[in-house]
UniProtKB/TrEMBL annotation:
Record family assignment: Belongs to the metallo-dependent hydrolases superfamily.
Species of provenance: Pseudohongiella acticola
Annotated keywords: Hydrolase
Alphabetized InterPro entries for the sequence: Amidohydro-rel, Metal_Hydrolase, Metallo-dep_Lactonases
Entries under SUPFAM superfamilies matching the protein: Metallo-dependent hydrolases (SSF51556)
An MF annotation (GO) of this entry: hydrolase activity
Domain of life of the organism encoding this protein: Bacteria
Span of domain Amidohydrolase-related: 27-339
Identification of the protein by name: Amidohydrolase
Length: 344
């Protein structure tokens, strides 16, 4: 595994941009909280330091990241520790309603327990008992690459997770319980994910980070060929009405743009120039009503600052209608994760 250390705030602040469309309400549907990853903490104060930089971030969704696990209990219950800590942090956020509200938790559970539906249901209900209405779904990422040593963030999934029947049974249980399934994987796993989406049509699946087109290790120098295949995979995937997508997460080190190694972080224009074809193809395939912009912070923070990445999203969506923009910045996430109306 390649080691990367997060740069400090002064490095990020080298790129300053005027905030575009500052009043537009935004839900950030994908961020993490943790201690000592990339040699830095990222907790509520750090999240708020980012969300308070000028964009109108109303609500956020925490996505599991194997943080705060309770290592004193059986393995299938350890992720409850993360849910417990994040629930407490969410409640802290609710004490300051003028700031971004953490209003949803996508937790982790081993869906391969689906061959014993009653047992898996008890695990999911334990998350619900802790988090209440904050608990929206599960992410058990499918990411796995044959050369994890080349990656900064090697996926921990077992081989061919998506094809395991017990896992698919677990996904079907999520659907019956009204819970969503988020996942993250690499570009060479998109075909397997298409097979999975077709097999569980009654469960809502959410693809994070474009299916992560890799650009490091053996994949460096193959961006055009990977993009060509990726476009075909996304067209097939979009034919599954149960699949939604998050637009973001392409500034991770493993995407191969190397912005994290430079003297200055990326600007919004650089992101748009390098990545616009991915965004436009995804929106064309899925439509704005199934797309939502995501920060993927603090992982993408290794390469770009929070106000700059949202500026990039606003530039990318400049030619869309007001209804389409609202869907991608707010409405799709609000609907999928059953988030409260801020007027309530």
């Amino acid at each position: 595994m390649t080691q990367v250390i997060a740069r400090n705030a002064e490095w990020l602040q080298q790129v300053q941009e005027d905030i575009i469309d500052p009043h537009r309400p935004i839900i950030d549907p994908h961020h993490h909280l943790w201690r000592k990853r990339f040699n830095q903490d990222y907790l509520l104060a750090d999240l708020w330091a980012d969300t308070d930089t000028g964009h109108n971030i109303k609500q956020t969704v925490f996505i599991e990241c194997r943080a705060f696990y309770d290592k004193e209990v059986e393995s299938h219950l350890q992720s409850l520790g993360e849910t417990r800590v994040i629930t407490d942090i969410a409640r802290q956020s609710h004490r300051q309603p003028e700031k971004a509200q953490l209003n949803a938790i996508v937790a982790n559970a081993d869906l391969r327990l689906g061959d014993d539906p009653g047992f898996l249901r008890s695990v999911l209900e334990a998350h619900q008992q802790i988090a209440g209405d904050l608990f929206k779904g599960i992410r058990q990422a499918g990411a796995r690459d044959p050369r994890p040593e080349d990656l900064v963030i090697p996926g921990p999934a077992p081989a061919y997770l998506y094809g395991q029947e017990n896992f698919r049974q677990g996904l079907k249980l999520l659907g019956t319980m009204g819970l969503t399934y988020d996942t993250w994987h690499y570009h060479h796993q998109n075909e397997d994910f298409c097979d999975l989406a077709e097999a569980v049509p009654d469960t809502t699946l959410i693809l994070d980070h474009f299916g992560t087109p890799l650009g490091v290790g053996v994949y460096r120098g193959s961006r055009d060929a990977i993009f060509t295949q990726w476009k075909q995979d996304m067209r097939r995937l979009a034919r599954c009405p149960n699949v939604y997508v998050k637009l973001g997460g392409l500034a991770m080190p493993d995407n191969g743009y190397d912005w994290h190694t430079r003297d200055r972080p990326a600007s919004s224009d650089e992101l748009v120039s390098a990545q616009k074809p991915y965004y436009m193809h995804m929106i064309e395939c899925f439509g704005p009503e199934r797309c939502m912009f995501e920060s993927n912070f603090p992982v993408d923070r290794l390469s770009i600052s929070y106000p700059v990445v949202w500026n990039a999203f606003k530039k990318l969506s400049a030619d869309f209608s007001e209804t389409e923009k609202h869907a991608m910045f707010y409405g799709t996430a609000a609907r999928l994760y059953h988030l409260p109306d801020p007027k309530d």
